[in-house]
Write a structure and sequence with these properties.
The complex is a heterodimer. By secondary structure, chain A is an alpha+beta fold. Chain A has 2 domains: 16-191, no CATH class; 198-298, no CATH class. Chain A has helices at 6-13, 37-69, 76-97, 103-108, 122-145, 151-168, 180-185, 212-215, 220-231, 236-253, 264-284; strands at residues 19-23, 29-34, 110-114, 187-191, 287-288, 297-298. Chain B is elongated. Mean pLDDT of chain B is 79; it is low at 1-12 and 184-190. At the A-B interface, strand 2, helix 3, strand 3, helix 5 and helix 6 of A face helix 2, helix 3, helix 4, helix 5 and helix 10 of B.
Chain lengths: 300, 352
């Protein structure tokens, strides 16, 4: 049912996305787009930046205090502990209060959700972020602290680097792009762009009339491509494209009357309305037609 | 074939007036959709607490309206924009309706008060196995070095032995290691605590992360940690310093080894969930039952911070074996008390 839009979405939006169908506790099936690697990396980089800024601010404040007391030396353990605290507070706080999106995720349009469609629990958020600690931040901080000069140090550097790369590569090897923390917490990260409801294209007054035979030339796929064309912002290019499409349709359905150029949009709208009326009616009777090449599929 | 369709006879003629069922449907509900959209936008921007009482009350109703509208739209409408919009709206409303709904303070408070201790209690068998692995390594290391001291340099890496070797005399060990003079606040806390923290954190990460590999590497690594400890013990035992050595270890070791045991237990939990998935798929099983492993590891990282502070600072500050034992026992008792606490709370202060 849901997958009927798949083909046309792919055709019109060009991006191939992994999908996953979840069932909400009310029993509604929702299809969600798995966030792709680039989006997640961007979101993480943004969060990392925000967290660094916050940490630097904290230490600017703290550093001034410490310099006077501890003779210039800053306690590394305390630094580690505070940064640990701060980043966990940061990630967990925002994923809790902003319903699964940190500022970085929000900018990119990502959200964390339960893999099975259930409520996103606080426990899952804590779990996925604590795992991030072991996945990324500890190896990263260890890597940065290592002395690069000694022979043993370089082996250790390699080991940490290998670990980080291995873990970082994990989302590449599964369909839902899950990192280790997602596996453990049972979460996925999805992309939720905002969609606006545009006006209904169907007009009630019909300047043109089409016969049933003419309307049977197309299916839902063509209808939705036409819909997209009609919703495009007006421009020279759009108009030229609409002219083309009008000519193609006329040829296909055997429309012999001349359609003046300035009437193109009106003609296409009228055809869209009539076609949609026809196809929706057929669909109600259980005869869904996917596209122009397919026959009528009867639903059971 | 079309002739068989009901109603085809009437539609055959071209029609000039059109009323689409899906358009009528849309006209009837659009107001509710728009209202829900406004409320959700408000929540996304300013949070749920800023909603007016009316809006808050109408939220679930509107959500259900949109959910049913979506089902209807999928069945009767071919307007792609409409269906995508409703899917998107329903999803965003779902996030508002099923968000975690708690703040960071409650959440971390819950983790420290209930979540972490409960995770520890629920994994006692994993913890026991993890502990036994260390213990076994410890005994083996002790026996090996006791039989031939050359094992020591084979078992303990240079960086860790900190100048101790089979060549060390009792006086060396006593004065430079076990009762080394207090190097001053900055030195002890900063440099040494940092080094030890780094070492322990690495071990913790490895034991936990290697759980993915089925648990055996976790056990091996744990046993190796025990091996080093046993080797040290044997080295000191041969010079009559066993009790002092244990004092030296106990003061921080209870916390530190505890943390490593917990990390190992976390790794074992992951391994178990992957190896024995019961009726689920392995991944599902991990998702359903794996959170506890993350709690163990996260809690263990906190314990490592504590251990690092004790080890780098307190140990040099307290230079009597008896006092060290006392502090070690005290920390052990405190941890035990902590892990046994948080029981009385209802099963779900927060869903785990």
């Amino acid at each position: 049912m849901v997958s009927r839009l798949d083909r046309v979405n792919k055709f019109l939006e060009g991006v191939k996305r992994n999908k996953r169908e979840i069932t909400t506790p009310e029993g509604v099936n929702l299809e969600v787009d798995i966030a792709n690697h680039g989006e997640r990396l961007t979101a993480f980089a943004l969060d990392f930046l925000f967290w660094m800024l916050a940490t630097i601010l904290l230490f600017l404040g703290l550093g001034l205090l410490l310099i006077q007391k501890v003779n210039g030396a800053v306690s590394v353990t305390i630094i580690l502990f505070l940064t640990f605290l701060l980043r966990n507070l940061y990630f967990i706080h925002f994923e809790l209060t902003a319903r699964g999106s940190t500022p970085g995720k929000r900018i990119v349009g990502l959200r964390v959700m339960d893999r099975f469609g259930g409520p996103l629990t606080a426990g899952a958020i804590v779990a996925r972020n604590l795992t991030r600690e072991v996945e990324v931040f500890l190896p990263l901080s260890l890597l940065l602290q290592l002395p690069v000069t000694s022979g043993q140090g370089s082996w250790m550097t390699l080991a940490y680097l290998g670990w980080i790369l291995l873990i970082a590569a994990m989302p590449l090897f599964n369909r839902d792009h899950m990192r280790a923390g997602d596996f453990i917490a049972g979460t996925i990260v999805i992309s939720v762009p905002r969609r606006a409801l545009l006006g209904d294209l169907v007009g009630t007054k019909m300047g043109y009339a089409f016969s049933r035979k003419q309307l049977e030339a197309y299916g839902a796929f063509e209808l939705q491509v036409l819909e997209e064309l009609l919703r495009r912002p007006d421009s020279e290019q759009t108009r030229a494209l609409q002219q083309d499409v009008r000519a193609k349709i006329c040829r296909k359905i055997g429309w012999t009357d001349e359609v003046p150029a300035h009437e193109t949009f009106a003609f296409l709208t009228a055809f869209y309305s009539a076609e949609r009326d026809h196809l929706e009616r057929e669909q109600l009777f259980g005869n869904f037609r996917a596209d122009k090449t397919s026959g009528v599929s009867r639903e059971t | 074939m079309n002739d068989l369709d009901p109603g085809s006879a009437q539609i055959d003629a071209p029609r000039h007036m059109i009323t689409l069922r899906s358009s009528e449907f849309r006209k009837g509900r659009e107001e509710a959709w728009r209202k829900l959209e406004t409320i959700i936008e408000q929540v996304e921007r300013r949070g749920q607490s800023k909603l007016s009482a009316d809006d808050l009350q109408s939220l679930p109703l509107l959500y259900r309206t949109v959910a049913s509208s979506l089902s209807v739209a999928r069945a009767i409408a071919l307007d792609r924009n409409l269906i995508l919009y409703l899917e998107n709206l329903a999803l965003r409303a779902y996030f508002v309706a099923y968000g975690p709904g708690v703040g960071i303070v409650e959440c971390l408070g819950w983790f420290l008060r209930t979540g972490f201790p409960r995770a520890v209690r629920s994994c006692r068998w994993h913890i026991l196995v993890s502990f036994l692995a260390i213990l076994a390594g410890c005994i083996a290391g002790f026996a090996l070095v006791k039989s031939n001291e050359e094992w020591f340099s084979a078992l303990v890496p240079q960086a860790l032995s900190g100048g101790r070797s089979m060549a060390s005399t009792a006086a060396d060990l006593r004065d430079h290691e076990i009762f080394a003079p207090w190097p001053g606040f900055t030195e002890a806390f900063v440099v040494f605590a940092n080094f030890l923290f780094r070492h322990n954190a690495t071990i913790g990460i490895m034991t936990f992360g290697l759980g993915i590999a089925g648990g055996v590497p976790t056990l091996v690594l744990l046993a190796y940690q025990g091996l080093t400890l046993g080797a040290f013990a044997a080295l000191h035992d041969s010079r009559g310093l066993l009790v002092d050595f244990f004092g030296w270890v106990t003061i921080h070791g209870v916390t530190e080894i505890g943390a490593i045991v917990l990390c190992g237990a976390g790794g074992l939990v992951i391994a178990e969930k992957i190896l024995f998935p019961n009726e689920y798929t392995r991944i599902e099983n991990l998702a359903l039952n794996g959170k506890v492993a993350a709690y163990l590891a996260g809690g263990a990282v906190l314990m490592l911070f504590v251990a690092g502070l004790i080890e780098g600072g307190l140990r040099q500050l307290v230079d009597m074996t008896a006092a060290r034992f006392a502090i070690g026992t005290l920390t052990g008792a405190l941890w035990l008390w902590y892990f046994m606490s948080g029981r009385e709370e209802k099963a779900d202060g927060l869903p785990s």
